[in-house]
Amino acid sequence: VAVGNADTAAVLTLAGVESDAGITLTGTSADVKVTGLINSTATGNIAISATDSGTVSAAAITNADGNISVETENGDLTVGALTATSGDVDISSSSGDVTTGAINASGTISVATDEGDVEVDGTITGGDTVAVTSDLGSVTVSGDIDATGAVLAVAVGNADTAAVLTLAGVESDAGITLTGTSADIIVSGKVAGDALSATTTTVGDISFAKAVDLTGSATVDAAGDVSFNGALSFDDDSTISASGTLTLSSVDGGDSSLTLVAGEGETSITSATNINGLSVDTTAGGSATFTVKEIGLDDGIEGTVTVGGTNGGTTLTVTSKLQLDGTTDKV
Q1: Is the pLDDT confidence value at 300 over 50?
Q2: pTM
Q3: Which residue from 30, 70, 233, 319 has the fewest beta carbons nearer than 10 Å?
Q4: How far apart are the C-alpha atoms of 251 and 233, rounded to whole Å?
């Protein structure tokens, strides 16, 4: 423990810490700096905190059997790689930037700040649930997220704070939720999971650079543009909506329905297969054109192609093949 106040600056400085029980490091109005490894080799939790404007910096933290928690109030928080072999990882700041290395945990993983940026410089692996969030700032994860449970990533901006949610790949055995409030969502790697929900409000584009492969539904709603530059596949009824332009490559619907809504521009799709019902529409007052090379509706499945079901200004062009094999298929 190190204690400072308004008149006395204080710092808790350690080369490294190892224990076969718990480890608690506290800076009360003081910084906490550990230049080497913090390591708990047996059962016990690791807790590091700094109050007021105190900061925390640590090279790396490992716990063999217990939780890891690191928190600050108004100071920045910087830690290297974090490993909780049998426990949770909870990294948080009330008002400071949060930067970590790669994270591996068997329990829940949470990296959050109320006001500031979050950056994970590496992969996130394991986790019953994974949450990487900023209530006012950007969020960046440079490595892939590979979670056994649900994944939540949130970035929030406003008129004074520009924000972006930037992720590499995301893979989950459960659902994936990506949210940007006045923030873009950019995913550069492959996405695989159950259901995907990706939403931007006020302003913000959503882009997926590689394949999105889902066993559930895709629900994507952007205040700006939406782009899927790789193949999109899903197994439950899905809706993709953009207030701006909508870009898709190929779509495999897994015998489920697909609803596409765009505010403007031309949406060009190479192929839309295994679709049990396709609807294309435009936002109120918009004007959108959908061009599909091939539409395939599986034999024996009722398939309805609907153009402009809610608003006018919608055009659908099929340039090669419209396959309506079921007896109840219709346009």
Answers
A1: no
A2: 0.92
A3: 319
A4: 6
